[in-house]
Amino acid sequence: MEKKILLGNEAIVKGALAAGVDFVSGYPGCPSAEIGEEFGKIAEQAGVYAEWAVNEKVGLESAIGASFSGLKSLVNMKSFGINVCSDSLFPLAYTGTKAPMVIFVGDDPSCHSSAQSEQDSRGYAYLSHIPFLDPSSPQECYDFTKLGFEISEKFNTPVIIRSTTRVAHQRAPVVFDVPEKKDFKKGNFVKNPHQFCTMPPRVLEMKKELLERIKKIQTYAEKSKINQVTGNKKSKIGIIATGISYFYVKEALSELGLDLPVLKLGFFYPLPKQQIGRFIKPLKKVLVVEEMQHYLKKEIKAIAKDTGSKVEVFGKNVLPETEELDVEKVLSGLARVLGKKIKSPAKIATAITNIPKRFPKLCEGCPYWNILPVIKRSVPEGTIFGGDIGCNMMAGLPPHNIQDYLFSMGASMGISHGVSKATGKKVVSIIGDGTFFHSGMPGLVNAVYNKSDPLIIVLDNRITAMTGHQQNPGMGKTLMGDNVEDVKIGEIAKACGVKNVKVLDPINMQELEKTIKDFMQKDEVSVIVCRHICALLERRLKSNPDLQKFYTNPQVT
Amino acid sequence: MENFNLILTGVGGQGIITLVSILDEACLNQGYDVKSSELHGLSQRGGSVIIHVRFGKKVYSPLVSLGRADLIIGLELVETLKDAYFAGPKTAFLVNEYSMGYPGYPAKPEILDSLSKIAKGRLHIIQASEICKKELDKEVVAGIYLLGYAVKNNLIPLKKESFEKALETVIPPKYLDLNLKAFNLAFNHD
């Protein structure tokens, strides 16, 4: 046993190690990237194999292959990653796992670092019938990950640990086991098409098996210690809370000096319905505290109805449905349930509202400082600009302001094609290297195949930068630091049938300008790859040469 | 002791995440429960960064409530003013006299005036970046210097030794000497 200050995400790593994980895959995002990064540093000496997949779908599928071959696996991704991998997530619930698998999903209420939507990934529990655990603290990140592997092993199901920014990026003391050193485990694939092929009519049998399995897991959840009641059980008003909200509730109650019963749910799915029924039975009022959507409140209302309870269920009628919660919001919700006025603490700073916002911006020395102004001045006034996820999102902020739409990873390719087809106008579409590999490539093939003519500019800074410098297929290094052949974006474009392809160093601004002006005249798809290393990474490598092992392949220039 | 609530504010790239790690370790060294909350990703790219640290006997929420900060450490002037709504009537302000401008950035005398109205006699404006640049040739350790200043002037209930031990845990050996020097600068002055 050791006790250390850990980030929630670091605690996930410790939990997976304690459970004996063999195989780790995922795609970096915020707030989940530190999990894969940490494995990159320690995998070798921990006897674990770890990789960055090209996207979350491939990452999950790799783990499925590992699980079918008998290896314990962990998959890590941010909220939107579960959308990307859902196509394979649903059949995985049907086949079940062979060796245990835990899938980490990091939601980002308030969209601190999320461009596309404020996603509550818990909804996937209903769609997939996969058990969902919701930790509140770094300690629970560790405990729940270990437990997740146990549940997975016991019921042959993947288990999802869903965390949020305030848990994943919370630091706190964590007590954890340090496992004995293990060797890399070699898997053994034993053929079993009965389990691994979802071909009909077997697929419907599998669905029945899945529903049976979930019933068993529900019985297990009823007895699980991660669903717990604290506080005065005689009170007629109670609270049900989950995730980080639980601590806001405890804080609010301690500020008010109130002792109310609180049911903390570690299981979001399947819910311990009997336990909830017993908890609400003696209550007149219950407040359900959860961030974003009111999934739990709806469930609890249904349980109350089924059990004939007259309890009044409060939730999003007294708490906001968007943005993360905090102690103030819980206090104000609680005040309405209690029918009391609650004195808020004295605030003294009021006259500070007129300060303009500080926008995030490109780092000092960033090659994009060269590229974006050149793009802007090389194309006609009124040109439509497509934007994509990554550091190139800054194109939409001052002083650049060249971004007319921004969606999900790789979406610029499809949308630019659609705009180009619909309007007949020349569109300039900007995408980063990591995003191009993640899901930009199918869009490029589609644009060539269906004959549109956007100018696609790939800002290739030789790394997945925004999430903190993760390796990708374009730069000749893997997560664990192995040298590999670099996948060349210019060659891919040519192989897809793009005739106008130019790979250049944007430090040469004249060449860039000339190429843009030239390609703007083409009536077919054209691609410019602006290759120049991220300035921040370049500085990191200079100040810490040990990092070369993970970032520099001498064969790649 | 009641829980101590600290807000750290500045701009992405000022090394704030390292400061939080040091603070958390110092709390652990002193036997406190501690929780801190930080943000990564987009918000770190030259944007506003705010970090919450709470420590004491038992901490539930990782976030400081509005009006409840005991100490606000600001590494940049306007960011400190923006986050001043965490201050209550007793909050101390420890602020680096340092600006990272952008279009629409308020004039410095205005910021200082607003801060002194909010913080009254509890405002410490320190030229931490300038001092570190002059004495150590490294602006980036300004935050470490401010931690030393906070301890020396009893703005934070943590001991010098707890911080020194924390620095040894958190800072890579190559930079330890520089950081220890920065931390001790405030003790050597006057």
Shape of chain A: globular
How is the quaternary structure best described? Answer: heterodimer
Helix content of chain B: 40-55%
* CATH fold type of the largest domain in chain A: Rossmann fold
Write up this protein.
- The complex is a heterodimer of chains A (557) and B (190).
- With 557 residues, chain A is α/β, with parallel strands linked by helices.
- Chain A has 3 domains: 2-223, 3-Layer(aba) Sandwich (Rossmann fold), CATH 3.40.50; 227-338, 3-Layer(aba) Sandwich (Rossmann fold); 368-551, 3-Layer(aba) Sandwich (Rossmann fold).
- Chain A is built from 20 helices and 19 strands.
- A 7-stranded mixed β-sheet of chain A has the order 3-2-4-5-7-6-12. Chain A has a 5-stranded mixed β-sheet with strand order 9-11-10-13-14, with helices on both faces. A 5-stranded parallel β-sheet of chain A has the order 15-16-17-19-18, with helices on both faces.
- In chain A, strand 15 (384-386), helix 15 (411-423) and strand 16 form a beta-alpha-beta unit.
- In chain A, helix 1 (8-18) packs parallel to helix 6, helix 3 packs parallel to helix 4 (79-95) and helix 15 runs parallel beside helix 16 (433-449).
- The longest helix of chain A has 22 residues, at 202-223.
- The mean pLDDT of chain A is 96.
- By secondary structure, chain B is of the alpha/beta class.
- Chain B has one domain (4-188): Pyruvate-ferredoxin Oxidoreductase, domain 3 (3-Layer(aba) Sandwich).
- In chain B, strands 2-3-1-4-5-6 form a 6-stranded mixed β-sheet, with helices on both faces.
- The longest helix of chain B has 16 residues, at 173-188.
- Chain B starts with a strand and ends with a helix.
